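[agent] plan:
  1. take the single chain provided in the ticket
  2. run structure prediction with default settings
  3. attach structure tokens to the ticket
  4. add a short note for the reviewer (M.T.)
[agent] executing step 1
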Amino acid sequence: MTDHNPAVEAAIEGELSLLDAEVRRSSELLGALLHPGFREFGSSGRVWDRASILAHLTTTTAPGSRPITATRMKGVQLAPDLVHITFDTEADDGRLVHRSSLWWRTPEGWRLYFHQGTPFSAEPPDAE
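[agent] step 2 finished; step 3 output follows
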């Protein structure tokens, strides 16, 4: 059983908010969760900064979209103001992605500083 850790819980709460379609469509809600220095290595291979991900998500997230399904979410506090979150997601189309995020506590609260997504297959790898 994991110890109660308010920093990890705050980062997980922020991460779950970022998966919500309503948050993803709102520049204000989404922007409040992203650090000014945000950077992402997306599962598509594209590199995103704060401005580009805000523009992309707020214009491509369809109204009424369901939240992205997340599993195996866990976190560890690396330093007093830094939390690492890992989890897997499954999109509506069945696409699976391993995800890793760094959350940094700022005077305004916990903000996503870095994110990386790596696609994976549900099929077990072939034995060599």
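[agent] step 4 note for reviewer: The chain has a mean pLDDT of 91.
[agent] ticket updated
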